[in-house]
Amino acid sequence: QVQLVESGGGLVQAGGSLRLSCAASGSIFNIYTMGWYRQAPGKQRELVARITSDGVANYADSVKGGFTISRDDAKNTVYLQMDSLKPEDTGVYYCNADIRASTMIIRAYWGQGTQVTVSS
Description:
Elements (H helix, E strand, L loop, with lengths): L1 E6 L2 E4 L4 E9 L1 E12 L6 E6 L5 E3 L7 E6 L4 E6 L8 E11 L4 E5 L3 E6 L1
Parallel strand pairs: 2-11
Antiparallel strand pairs: 1-3, 3-8, 4-5, 4-9, 5-6, 7-8, 9-10, 9-11
């Protein structure tokens, strides 16, 4: 069984920073692309950033220059450093990873989500 567990969300004032972490655990054989998505109230879930196993990162236009995604493969963990936060960054942030488990099947896994609230 594979699990993704997020941490690091919370309440912050506009202009502040937060760092999200997501650790994968369980019967993992390989981890491929890892990423962060978010869902604001009344809106669809959207991609924030993702990073390949080669370290290539992509960002949503709305967060470029403010957010940085990174990963530590030794810890099976992906991070999202969020700086210069704005109220529109408020939402539930979900970790996502493409993982080959011990079953040898590659599939996408999701974390339970962590709330980020940015006050104005």
